[in-house]
## 1
Amino acid sequence: MPPLLAAVGDKLRAVSWDREQYPDFLWSCWHLANGDPHDLVKLVKYMDRIEEIIGPDRAGFPEHWILTGRLSNFEAVPEATRARVLGEMRSRDIYDTIVPEDFAQALGMYPSAPGRWLIQPWLDAGMRIDPESARRGLEEVTAAAMGGRNPVATRAKASVFRQYVHAGRISMPSELRDEWRDVIVRYPMETTSEETSKVETFIRASFGAMEGAREEREAGGEGSSAWPQTFWRSNWSLFPCRRHEAPRAQPILSDDDRAAVESAYREMKADIKALHERFLQLADTTDPDIFNPDRYEVLTGIVARVLRYLNVYIGYPALWTMEHGAPLLRSVVEARIIIRYLAAADVDSDIFRRFKAYGMGRLKLLKLHFEEYLAAEQNPHEDMIAYVEYLEALVNQDIMEEFQDINLGGNFAGKDMRKMAAEVGLEREYRLLFAPASSNVHGEWSVIDEYALERCRNPLRLRHRIVRREVNGPIGGMVVDTVVEFASLLVDEYEQATSHGRTLTGSSGSE
Ligand SMILES: [Zn+2]
């Protein structure tokens, strides 16, 4: 929900209705929860009755106190007045209406709630607090009141606004007053829908400013924020979480879906097979320049790696989601950017050697770390020793490790992927595909939020997040289609980048 911006002098603070204000408006919202505009008229009448009982003498009240219907506002009523208010309400036979039993049940769940004295007659009469009935009422009212712009919240604010106007605490410039007075008096029962929406917008805006002023006044007094915290925090132990009702009885895929996935699978598999064969044909007929094979090996290896990945991936339709397909999508877009970047360099450029050297330097570093680890072990496991020997052979296969530098930069080109993409005209692919896939691979919050967690459906839990139990997401062809399309473009890039080598040998003819 968009928080209200309460402007207090030069201080701007976001006040969230749901989190910080609603719990204090539990009584008002209880009377408004049905959504009937008449209820606002009734609520205002109840407040008039209570003020009438209190009378003009405000001894023992906080300065400038007026009745707003907040629980903390009731809490500020002095002891002696409380007893009189309760007694009078009962003798006028309006207590049960103003403090209904289901409200008493709900408030009874919170021993430290402000304004709890309101329900004392119910408790004295032997009312037993039934958590189940409290839960039902609270869930219903809370669900109706969530979101500061909904009718229930707006009317709760309107009732405060009305009290301020009624008490002459709000002064408006006269031209504004003339324009508004008539409309506000008719709100909410006799205003046109256009007027209603104007009044409500005005109320919400004024309420923000009034709230800010109130918090300023009460700063340092009775911590008015304690109750909303207590309300939400104690709901954790009082009421259970509720999950999205997943149609657990049904399989993830209907028969139709299954048939669609199977046919997509067959089609994709055939496409990928053809793509792979095309690539192998190109790779096999390109002159690798055996005297200096860096260029050939680097370009060919980049494509070969992605196609290996794709060949295995395609066999597991459960991975055909953005959640699980992101690492491959990222790899294939990255490979395309790198191939283009490398292909743009001169055939005998140093960059291919540097590409290899960067990777080998990282491997050498890994080997050094393992050796350090082994040296510190009393009895290193023989598998570990064998593994380090294996690493050593890998590191030394082309160049003695003494002659290999370790480059701690981000990649072989000393240039980040975005810049590289921009240089080769793939910035759009970088922004629209690589970046989101990358967020996924790095487990950024947006991705965790989207896949690993879900919102609790119990309105009494303030939409907090809980673990999503369902581990399979909806399968669709979109991610796979994109991956296959990009793999195909990647092979096109490869074909172009290596065409020179095939023209020279003439073994597959020139294109
Ligand atoms: Zn929950």
## 2
Amino acid sequence: MVTWRALGCEGVIGNALVDMYSKNGDMESALNVAHLDSMVWNVISCSSLIDGYIEKEQTNEALMIFVEARRHEIEPNEFTFSSLIKGCSGQAMLEQGAQLHAQIIKTSFAFDSFVLTALVDMYGKCGLLSSSVQMFEKIKNPDVFAWNSIIGVLAQHGQGKEALQMFKQMVLKEIKPDNITFFNLLRACSHSGLVDEGLEYFDSMLKIYGIEPRQEHYSHVIDLLGRAGKLKEAEEFIHKMPFEPSAFAWCSLLGACKTHRATELGEIAAKKLMELEPENSGSHVLMSNIYASVGQWEDVKATRKLMRDAGVKKIPGFSWVDIDKKTHVFGVEDWSHPEKEEIDKKLEDLLIRIREEGYVPLLELVTSNVEDSVKERMLHYHSERIAIAFALTKSPASKPIIVKKNLRVCVDCHSAIKFISKVEGREIIVRDNARFHHFANGFCSCGDYW
Ligand SMILES: [Zn+2]
Ligand SMILES: [Zn+2]
């Protein structure tokens, strides 16, 4: 590794080495080369290092390189900034993302469309829809990537109509949509229950825009129909598809079967899902929930046994919230947090107040055959509620609370959080595994459709 130094062209060879190691994901060697000679600390090799870390989802390490580069008085360029912001979006690191934004404002990249597009995405993925829209409005001549970003953000935040409006503007400005545009549009329609519009867009893909729908587009149509309760249409659509539906499509359908208590179609979907993803506990859990919802306790038991025999473990739900630059993670009925007592007190207080406002727990959601009072406790200690209670005791009243969750928010928590936002007069943003919910004044932005 040392021989390149003897060649007298450290900069070029060093850069190439850093780039090669970074691209191969060997960050240790890449960093070794960079630390051997200060000649290698330049914008090219730093960008390689940052990209390498972002690719490995090690955003904090990428940010450290950025800090070290600044110490070497290296001026970042638009690619450095957009890579770092991309990293922050991927891990929903709002604080770090916003800090980068503050630095960008002081540079000549403040109006760079590449950087602004990354910011649209970052603010959107971190839950701040209005900031995301503001960033988009700053882009002078948005290209297809910028339009795709804003349509994707609106879709994720359940702003279906606004997403379709954006698309209309995009077409008016003669920007040609691509397959990602349609993916986001279908997602927008699906999350907002715009069935007719979604089907129209799906049809227009090939007919008007000459874009061959891919498996993910078909899968989203199944999701769209399923969520709207059009199970028969979803089933017919599956039979007409030129592809085998993806696990996502079967999972959506299974979810829809759960909501609409359709056991037979649910069994078909669950079987397909188990074939495609045998290690995924979701299909077993959903199926046992469907059986529980129609009171087929024997089938619930059989499904659970099947799960145990196959060694499938239920993915535990957990939620996390950032307070004072620290991430606090909570599981279901998780009492390991050092401030347990304070949180418990807050939870109790919230329960009393939301009940006065009219909250009624949805006990039928608990699939265990236990007493109602136990069921109510179980719902009450879902991880997102613990995280919200904790954040309420910690963060200043002027700031919205942003909680993230690895699984879908259940219907009961959704209802409880609406009441909590009302009694506390706070804006609460919850990002689950599919989308964002903005709770304020007793309402959610999703309009209870998700
Ligand atoms: Zn819940
Ligand atoms: Zn919602």
## 3
Amino acid sequence: MTADDDPIAKAAYDELAETYATNVRTNAYNAELEFPATSSLIPDVDGKRILDAGCGTGVYTEWLVERGADVVGIDVSDEMLGHAIEQVGDGDCTEFRRADLEEPLEFATARSFDGIVSALALSYVEDWRQVFSEFARVLKPGGFLVFSTGHPIDEFPPENDEAENYFEVERLTKEWDVEVPYYRRPFSEMLNPLLENGFRLETIVEPQPTDAFAEQRPERYEKESRNPVFLCVRATMR
Ligand SMILES: C[S@@+](CC[C@H](N)C(=O)[O-])C[C@H]1O[C@@H](n2cnc3c(N)ncnc32)[C@H](O)[C@@H]1O
């Protein structure tokens, strides 16, 4: 694979991995806004086999293993995976693999997972019909998919003046320590690909900041209490 063929966010996450690993468990936006909401949607996983799709440095993998799951964590960034292995361990209950969510999940047989968690990773995938079709293939009937992503309102003007046409899937960039390319999409292009692939929509959460967020980021609390930043979804395979 040449760098030109690499998934859009791989290089950025390879570069960000060290900082991400240090900050993700304490950063107010992750730890006190996205994580509490997404994790609240995950059902009992004790004894279940779960795919952590876009596992990054393994925050959700660790949480799932602590609750009795066997977890396969996949990510496209070797550097992020390196931190996941360091922090969670590649052990009896965990397996980490390099895999691209834009491609078929060749390592996974049909109906081999009880659940899939995909936190903040799908923004880097252009075609949600393809990825949800793969999720549908590898999930057992009745299996769950919990995912989180940027909220379509937060990713559109006035919050994001780079966006041009609400109704399009647009490739944009955000500036963290490095430029991170991502795709924004309308709300319908989040839910319809899910429904078209046989998922039943169960719950949607538009998280609001916790009290701990207010203590950590008082200057952002007021704004984030009024404006959605993330969208968290639970769906079930029919
Ligand atoms: C914001 S991080 C989220 C990581 C983790 N789920 C969490 O909540 O901390 C996004 C992750 O998606 C991964 N990613 C981006 N594009 C991907 C792709 N096409 N296939 C698999 N993983 C991808 C990145 O490497 C990065 O680790």
